[in-house]
Amino acid sequence: MGDLMDEGSISTIQQFHSYVKRLSSIFNIEYPVVQIWLPGDNDIGGENEPVSKQKAAEFDKVFDQPSVITFKNLTFFKVNGITYTFPKRTEEVDETNINIVVSHYPITSRTVFSTQLIKEFHPNIFFCAHEHESKYVKQNKDLTHRNTHNFGYGEGILNISLNEDNLYEIYVPTCSYRMGTSKIGFGAAIFNDNNHHMKYTVFWSPTRFPYLLFYLAVMIFLLWYFILFCVAKLIHRHPKIVKSSSDSQPLLERI
C-alpha cells in the first residue's frame, strides 16, 4: 500500500536499492502468491517535496508488474493517487469480476478524480493507506453522504455487502514502527458468498510505547542506583576527620 521505504524519495539510487533489499528480507518477494506493490510518497515523493520522476521510474523497474492484476475472479486496479494516473480497463477483464481499486493516497475524497475511476472501473471497493490510521469511509455511490468511522482495537470484523448501494473506502493502517504511530497492524480481507460479501479486520501488532517507557524507567532507576552506590562507597572509604577544636569537645569537659 505504499511507503515501502523510509526515505526512498530523497535517497540516492544506491540507497534506494538497499531499501529494496531490506524490504525483500522482511517480506519474501519470491513467495508464490499474488503480490501488489504500490508507490507511496516516502518512495517517490509527492507530499512535502515534488514527485521524483527518477524514483518513480526506478520503483516501476524494481517492482515490475502490470497495473491491472487479476486473481481468479478478483481484479485489482493500481491507481497512483500521487500523480493522478490510472490504467485503462482492458477487454481481458471479466465484467463479472469484483473490481478493487488500490491506491496509497485516499481516492474518494477527490471527487473529480474518483468520478473518473468509477466510470472507468465500476469498483466495488477502494483500499488506501497514507494516513497510517485504521478507519473506513461509507458513502453513496455518487460520493455523497460521506461518513468516516474509526476501526481500531476491539472493533472485531467489518462486514460489507458488495451488492448494497453504498461504496466503501478502507484505510489500511501502517505496519511499520518507523511511522511513529502508536497503533500499527496488518489489514486482512476475505471475500465469500461468491464474492458478494467481504469481511475485513486488522491484525494488530503489539504497541511499543508502553515497553519503551518501561525500559526508560528501568534505565533511570539503574542509573540512580549506580550513582548512589558510588557515592556511598566513596563516603565509606573516606577517612574520618577528628576535630580538635573546643566545639568538638563534650559539654562537661568545657566547664
TrEMBL record:
Which part of the chain is the Calcineurin-like phosphoesterase domain? 2-133
Membrane topology category? Multi-pass membrane protein
Does the record's keyword annotation contain Membrane?
yes
Q: What are the recorded Gene Ontology BP terms?
A: GPI anchor biosynthetic process
Q: Which InterPro entries match?
A: Calcineurin-like_PHP (IPR004843), Metallo-depent_PP-like (IPR029052), PGAP5/Cdc1/Ted1 (IPR033308)
List locations, semicolon-separated: Membrane
Q: Which UniProt keywords apply?
A: Membrane, Transmembrane, Transmembrane helix
- The main place the protein resides is membrane
The protein, known as: Calcineurin-like phosphoesterase domain-containing protein
